[in-house]
Amino acid sequence: MRRKKIFVFILLAIATLLVCQYIVGWPLKRLALSAAPALVLFWRLFFVILWSVFLFWLLMPYLAAGRNRRLAVGLGLAVVGLLFVALSPYSWRQEIQGYAGRGFQTSTRLAGPTAASVKPAAAALKTTPARQWSHAAKYGHFFVFAFIGLCLALSPTAIDKRLLLLDCMLLAGASEMVQFFIQGRQPLVGDWLIDMAGAVLGVFLSEALGVRSKE
Fold first, then answer.
1. Is residue 83 a contact partner of residue 178, using CB atoms and an 8 Å limit?
2. What is the pLDDT of residue 125?
3. What is the pTM assigned to this prediction?
4. How many domains, in total, are found in the chain?
5. What is the pLDDT of residue 41?
6. What digits encode the pLDDT tens for the residues 60-82?
7. Average pLDDT of the chain?
8. CA nearest 155: which of 70, 215, 78?
9. Alpha helices in 112-182 (DSSP H)
10. Confidence (pLDDT) at 158
11. CA gap 165, 210 in Å, rounded
């Protein structure tokens, strides 16, 4: 019961900060990055380490009781995906977007467009890679949390699905909050909802797998 109260308190704090960022436009990120570079680096490292400790504290009970190697490997892969989604700077995404754009341009040249299709292809070249990467990032959020929800739900300790979803909400909220201190990134309520939708899908998939295994 005490752990549940702590979860609710942390969840309300995360929700308040995200809503303020989304509706009021609270410039927390601007305040966090307006200090001296050395101080900014210190606070970034501090909050990333704090986030990692929170991540370990949140997920450790699911592994400690289960002691399942497959579950541990699956959850480890999910955490690696979460680390990439949450902590990758925007510059990395721009580089990947540039690679995608050059690949798209190369494939267009190899296809040999006709004169009638040159103008539409040029317009698509300007918009398609960015839009595709934006959608891919959202899909990444969704599928990473779907896999996390599935792994957590398959753990022997995941008896109460409401508490499991609360854990996923905290994990998603913390993953958004840490982006206050990642260069070029900012927390978004929409990304939090996408993460939660993926976690809910993972829990439903675990229920379906459980029914099939019983049959």
1. no
2. 44
3. 0.63
4. 1
5. 65
6. 777 665 566 777 788 778 888 88
7. 68
8. 70
9. 115-153, 161-177
10. 62
11. 17
* d(C-alpha 187, C-alpha 3), whole Å: 26
Asked whether the beta carbons of 141 and 191 are under 8 A apart, the reply is yes
Neighbours of 100 (CB within 10 A): 16
Q: What is the mean pLDDT of residues 159-182?
A: 80
Amino acid at 150: L
Q: Which two tokens stand for residue 200?
A: 């809910």
The domain containing residue 73 runs over which residues? 2-214
Whole-angstrom Cα distance, residue 154 to residue 152? 5
Instruction: Pick the closest to residue 105 from 125, 130, 123 (CA basis).
Output: 125
Q: Does residue 197 surpass a pLDDT of 80? A: yes
Burial of 154 (0-12, 13-18, 19+ CB in 10 A): buried
Give burial (CB, 10 Å; 0-12/13-18/19+) of 162.
exposed
Helices and strands counted in the chain (H then E): 8, 0
Instruction: Reduce the DSSP state of residue 201 to 3 states and report it.
Output: helix
CA 119 to chain centre: 37
| Residue 151 CB partners (closer than 8 Å, separation 6+) | 62, 71, 74, 75, 78, 202
CA nearest neighbour of 85 among 55, 40, 128, 53: 55
**Whether 149 contacts 199, CB under 8 Å:** yes
Query: Confidence class of residue 121 from pLDDT cuts 50, 70 and 90?
Result: very low
